[in-house]
């Protein structure tokens, strides 16, 4: 009887999950990322450069982003991004120079998220945070961090 009670208790614990799992990406709905939508211009760019990022909701489970940097009249860098629901979680996928790099969302709040790919060289972490009319993107790995500060583009 004790053995049956112990097996039943273990099954219930595994099926329900632990309290620290509440509020993870499994409960995130598509419209919870609508704060990301917009046309953004980097305000902390290098002199002579302009960086832009544009996000839109494509479907209920897909947000599309495109970022590019111009110097004078030339585009010197660009990448596309997808934030999509896969199974019970969300993934941020960054594509540039023919390579698609997935980052699994680890933490999600009402106005931000942190995504991880520990196997990638740089970055290993990509975080987005929206505060008022500003959007902050942080890319980081080990000792190196780059903060992108964006305001609404004209």
TrEMBL record:
This is Lipoprotein.
